[in-house]
Design brief:
The chain is mainly α and 262 residues long. It has 11 helices and no strands. 81% of the residues lie in helices and 0% in strands. The protein is globular.
């Protein structure tokens, strides 16, 4: 499938979804509006709200706060996950000792931690960053750990036979093996970093997209809620696109997947 065809199909799905939403909230069917505008708003109202936010500049401050929190959570959580994942994979005894504790912490509901982080770090950005880090870290950690563990024993033995030292093995064997796993986790981590920031803002803040959504919900402003959600969705897609660009640059050596035609 060509890139143009794929993009056309993706846009078609978006157009059909918005059109269906508009029809079901605007035109009664059998005298009944299937999606009452009071509960579901309408695409027109949502677009008008988004345009108003950008025209009068209301949204920029909140976007910047959420972007800063998300990027800090993404970077700190990813770096921590990569470094500790590599270390655990290279230290099987240490990994075995800490394994139950890692699984126990990972099983904790992150929302429960949000009030604790607020007590520790206050209502500023760092409580949101901390919540985002807990979401990002474990995703990256487990993928990097598994990626290093999946190194082919044959490749590893051949590299050692050729005289590679530990640093060369890390650069030419372990690191390339883990990169695909790592970037697979980073695509997921982008969304979770934003979720951590927004949930933290929703529970207690004075700015950010989560704050906008929470304020809109408080006055039953459905258009404001949907507008905040759409801005948030575009925000996540833009960050994920940047991660894809970096991935394509670093994994340029990776062979293209052959398409099988039936």
């Amino acid at each position: 499938m060509s890139r143009a065809t794929l993009l056309s199909l993706q846009l078609l799905i978006a157009v059909i979804s918005v059109a269906a939403w508009y029809v079901l909230t605007t035109f009664p069917i059998g005298g009944v509006t299937l999606l009452p505008p009071f509960f579901f708003s309408t695409p027109v109202d949502v677009v008008q709200r988004i345009v108003k936010w950008f025209v009068d500049g209301t949204i920029w401050k909140h976007l910047w706060i959420t972007l800063l929190e998300s990027m800090l959570a993404f970077v700190i959580g990813s770096l921590g996950g990569v470094l500790i994942g590599f270390w655990f994979a290279q230290q099987p005894r240490t990994a075995a000792v800490f394994d139950p504790y890692v699984k126990m912490i990972n099983a904790l509901p992150r929302v429960v931690l949000a009030p604790i982080f607020t007590l520790w770090f206050g209502l500023g950005i760092w409580s949101k960053v901390a919540l985002g880090v807990t979401l990002v870290f474990f995703i990256v950690f487990f993928n990097v750990y598994q990626g290093v563990k999946e190194v082919s024993p044959t490749v590893l033995a051949n590299a050692r036979m050729l005289g590679m030292n530990d640093r060369q093995l890390m650069r030419h064997v372990y690191w390339p093996s883990a990169l695909s796993w790592m970037f697979s986790s980073l695509h997921t981590s982008v969304g979770f970093a934003v979720v951590g920031a927004v949930v933290g803002e929703y529970l207690g803040s004075a700015a950010g997209l989560g704050y906008i959504i929470q304020q809109a919900e408080g006055v039953f402003d459905v258009a404001g809620v949907f507008a905040g959600m759409f801005v948030l969705a575009v925000f996540v897609v833009a960050i994920d696109w940047i991660v894809t660009l970096v991935e394509n640059r670093l994994l340029i050596w990776r062979p293209a997947v052959a398409e099988t035609r039936t």
